[in-house]
Amino acid sequence: MGDNSNIIHVKFDKDFYYHKAMEKMRQQDFVYAESLFKKALELSPDDFVIIPPYAECLVELNQTTKAEEMMYDQIAKDHFVTDYYFYLSQMFMKTNEPNKAFLFGLRYVTEEDDQDYFEEMIQMFEVKYDNQTVVEEEAERFVIQHIFQYLFSKGKLQEANDFIERQRATMQEDQHIMNLKAMSMLYNNQYEEAEALLQTILEDNPSDIYALCHMTLLLYNTEQMERFKLYLDQLSKLHPINDEESFKLGVVLSYLGKHKPSNQLLVPLLKKAQASMPQLHHALSYNYYHLGYEEEAKRHWQRFEDSVQYHSQLPPWKIDELKDMLDSHVLPLLKDEDYRYRLYGIFLLGHMKHRELVMSHEVWEVLENLPDYERLYITYTFQKLHLNKIGFIDKGMKLIEQSEYQHYGKELFVSWIEHAEMLIADNESIETVDHYVAASVYIYLKMLNIKITKKEIKNSFNITTYRLNKAINAIVSI
């Protein structure tokens, strides 16, 4: 055997990729370095040794936003917070964003009492002010708002809420921060807590545009319609005094269906700092769609999707498709006099993705007033209750839905429900369902004089001829 004593075994761990990346950074091979940093971070997420140089590498590749967000995520996790303030300040100096550079730098200085860095910033930015405490509080407020808005825009609602909760008590009593906290509670469905907080803000400042927006949304979501109409009327009369207020009011009005006034506020912001915010393009997509400009709506929806990594939103045209499906197909079935059609309607509703986005009051009322048998099926469908007989019917409908015969529509499904109930009443074994469904489909199609062979049916449902014939005999003999 050969001598393997001179073979060097390389361990491809995070240290290997990190040191290799640092070597490539020194050689200014930033593209290769980035790929190595990425591998190192995958092996050791949240690693403080890796993230700062990785962020520096990303800046060199003009991927500043990714670098910025990487460090915001660490601050949100309460990891090396003051250090990341410093690195963000340095990064913003390099990207020529002096306001952010100074404010994040001041947060670092305040926490670490680094007077040398403070003097360096004062000279670099030529800052003059009368009250250092006021400026420090403004920096603290800005950083909290900035990181919260990032987390919120990415749909990280719980992280945003936790981030606010970690701030010192004095800041949590600040009206700007209280509004952020109320917004977080509102989107986390903590309506009672949010309303109490908003009432506190509005008692102190009845014209606070952010609190008025949040309260209007809260009343809308909790169906307090009389108060909602009063607040909506108040919103319609507001005149924002800056771009931030225009953005907030415009997004809220879009959500509430006031698309034209929303557009009047939001379109001018496409030339401002808000142009990079995903909520702007989400709102504009809905506005343009409902104002009849579908191509413009699709363009803004694409910009929205390009700016978020994950989301569970649907474009307005998909919402309309769902509404049409619900109103023209599902709701008439739920209202049908024949309970079998109602069961099929519940089946369709249970298989509608994103149904919660379009469920109207009428649908909820119909569901709540259905007889016990259908309500039992609702419980089975939505609460995953284990019921053998209802489960037998449901599994059969699922097999039809997945088959090539589902296009024959509701009558095929209703025929299966009838056959299934006959089998249950006749005490047939219902542990397996596929052969009974195959037999039901075969009988239904034959009844319509549609050319179909047993071979085609058994192949479609992957059963034997023997089991198919046995199931056909079981149904026709009842």
Automatic annotation (TrEMBL):
It comes from the Bacteria. InterPro entries: TPR-like_helical_dom_sf, TPR_rpt. Keywords: TPR repeat. TPR repeats lie at residues 14-47. SUPFAM superfamilies: TPR-like (SSF48452). This is Tetratricopeptide repeat protein. It comes from Mammaliicoccus vitulinus.
